[in-house]
Structures are given as structure tokens and as C-alpha cells.
Recover the amino acids of this structure.
């Protein structure tokens, strides 16, 4: 497949996640929630998740954001449902490295989010791509701190 066709495919996947995001909405019985914003771009995201026995049973996001931010949040929710908190935190770290151009060889666990590796060429967009992931990281760390009290 020619590189331009591959780029078109990647763009289409990003546009699909942006136009028809997965796991968007509210969770009435959320155990943890957080709101983050990206003042550079104006993105705002609220994450709600249900943690049961240290596993992400469900996750939803809402807010407003650019196509990259929304697509990344959609991809992130797909990747982390069913993960333990530690597995999800490892994915957050892996994704952060990926969008900085420092990816490791095992990116398959990121699912569609691996497509966002091209963001590394646009430093201003890295914050858009990582907003939901940073929100998840913060929510999981807060949940762990609450459980350790």
C-alpha cells in the first residue's frame, strides 16, 4: 500500500473516531471522575469511570475538543475497558512515548491509538492527543490514593 494511501486510511480512522466517538456520554454510577482542559487548544474533557476490584469496568468521556482530542479519547476508552489500573497506567505511559516519537516495539495493546503516532511531528498537537490519557492517569492515581487511606 502506498504511503499516501496509508496516510489516508489513518486520517479516515481518526475522523471516524472524532465524528462517531466510542464511549461518549455520562456514567450515572461513576466511581471516579475528573475534568481536564488544554488551554492552548480550548479542549475540555470530563472522564468518568467505574472501577471495580481495581479493574476499569466502564469509562465515558464528554466535553468539547478538536478532532485529535476527541479521536484520542475515543481510542483510549476502547483500549482501557477491562484493564486493571496498573495495565491502564502502563498504556498511558506507552501512548505518551508514542506521541513523542519514542514508541517501543509493542504498540499493539494501544489499539487504534497507535495511529496517532504521527502527532509526534506536530508538537502543538501532542497536548490534544494526550489530554484524555493524562486525565485517566490522574483519575487512577487519585483512586489509588483514596484506597490507600
Amino acid at each position: 500500500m502506498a504511503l499516501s494511501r496509508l496516510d489516508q486510511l489513518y486520517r479516515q480512522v481518526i475522523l471516524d473516531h472524532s465524528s462517531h466517538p466510542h464511549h461518549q456520554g455520562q456514567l450515572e454510577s461513576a466511581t471516579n471522575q475528573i475534568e481536564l482542559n488544554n488551554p492552548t487548544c480550548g479542549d475540555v474533557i470530563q472522564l468518568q469511570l467505574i472501577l471495580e476490584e481495581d479493574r476499569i469496568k466502564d469509562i465515558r468521556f464528554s466535553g468539547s475538543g478538536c478532532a485529535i482530542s476527541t479521536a484520542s479519547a475515543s481510542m483510549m476508552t476502547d483500549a482501557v475497558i477491562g484493564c486493571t489500573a496498573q495495565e491502564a497506567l502502563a498504556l498511558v505511559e506507552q501512548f505518551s512515548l508514542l506521541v513523542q516519537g519514542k514508541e517501543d516495539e509493542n504498540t499493539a495493546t494501544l489499539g487504534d491509538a497507535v495511529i496517532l503516532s504521527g502527532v509526534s511531528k506536530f508538537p502543538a498537537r501532542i497536548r490534544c492527543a494526550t489530554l484524555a490519557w493524562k486525565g485517566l492517569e490522574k483519575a487512577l492515581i487519585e483512586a489509588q490514593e483514596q484506597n490507600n487511606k
